[in-house]
Amino acid sequence: MIGISNSKILVRSLDGEVLQALESMANASDRSLEAEARYALRSWVQPILVSQERSERRVQLSQRLGTALAQINDAASLRWRPSHVAQGIDEPLAGPVEDWFLGRIEPTFEQLAKIAEFLGVDRRWLQHGDGHPFPVDNVRLSEDPAQAVRWLLNLPDEPHAPLGSYQPAPPFPEMTRLIFVRSASEAGALAIVKQRDGYRCKSYMTPTHVSDVIGAGGEAQLMALSVTLELLYKLSPKPSFSVTSWIVPDKSFSALVAGQLHPLSLKAGNSNQPWWEDFWDESMASKNAYWKGWGEITARIRRAVDRTDRLAKQRALIRAGEHPALSMLDSR
């Protein structure tokens, strides 16, 4: 008889040869008889455990694939099926890809990387379940408006860019839309979304708060942002590219910057709030009320720019059409 109290197993009338073999194995491994019995049982059921783990991984992967496709279809008003994904990643047949989505077979890591690129989701999330579905990075816009606009438009940094102005490299060379997203909360946190095509996007969380709930450092960021937005507006990007701004509920904003929500899922009801165009424009600021305290913060930042020689001079050059950065798109 052998008892294993931890797992509540009691074996009676155990064959003497089996018990002797277990004792011999236990002595060789320097384990107790019960520990050796647990090890033997674990080894015995290991193939079943491995099979269950593989099955569970396929199920979870199937769920991630389905979630990604459903969110993209909803956000971009598409009607894609696994066959579209198969064609998009150059698979010769749709059948195996459909089996991936159904959890019947498992794709390779390389195939998953291709799907992640095609769908615009985070590769590590799709392959392993790490993190969240949609790519997010952090950025601190340069307080040099020209450098900030270069990053916003995915232009390379100038060779003589000042130290400390580094910002994350653009995820792709071309964009169809640049979106400034402000949280509707009192603090007014700011995120930036770069949209690559009809559905692929990347979000960036900034430390900037577009509100009157700021300190001296926050005021400096908003002063630079004001001049940056005016420079961006005056550059008038090509017709195939657009700039817009949204104000979204704080809960949705938090999901966006956590990578849990596709940016285009926020578009409904938020596409006609051009605060980015009016933030720097004193002729428009008093005509709107995008959020509580809008008039106060825009007036405060305009006065602060007036008191700052460097930014005041840049703003004057922009309005006169003489700012050197106004020609930056010519060499794109």
How would you sum up this structure in a few lines?
With 332 residues, the chain is α/β, with parallel strands linked by helices. The protein has helices at 16-29, 33-76, 82-88, 95-102, 109-119, 123-128, 145-152, 216-235, 250-257, 275-278, 282-285, 294-306, 309-320, and strands spanning 2-4, 9-11, 136-138, 177-183, 189-195, 201-209, 242-248. It contains 13 helices and seven strands.
Q: What is this structure's SSE topology?
A:
Layout (H helix, E strand, L loop, with lengths): L1 E3 L4 E3 L4 H14 L3 H44 L5 H7 L6 H8 L6 H11 L3 H6 L7 E3 L6 H8 L24 E7 L5 E7 L5 E9 L6 H20 L6 E7 L1 H8 L17 H4 L3 H4 L8 H13 L2 H12 L12
Parallel strand pairs: 3-6, 4-7
Antiparallel strand pairs: 1-2, 4-5, 5-6
Helix pairs in contact: 1-2, 3-4, 7-8, 8-12, 8-13
Please, could you describe this protein's structure?
This protein has 332 residues and is α/β, with parallel strands linked by helices. It contains 13 helices and seven strands. The strands form two sheets. The protein has a five-stranded mixed β-sheet. Strands 1-2 form a two-stranded antiparallel ribbon. It is elongated.
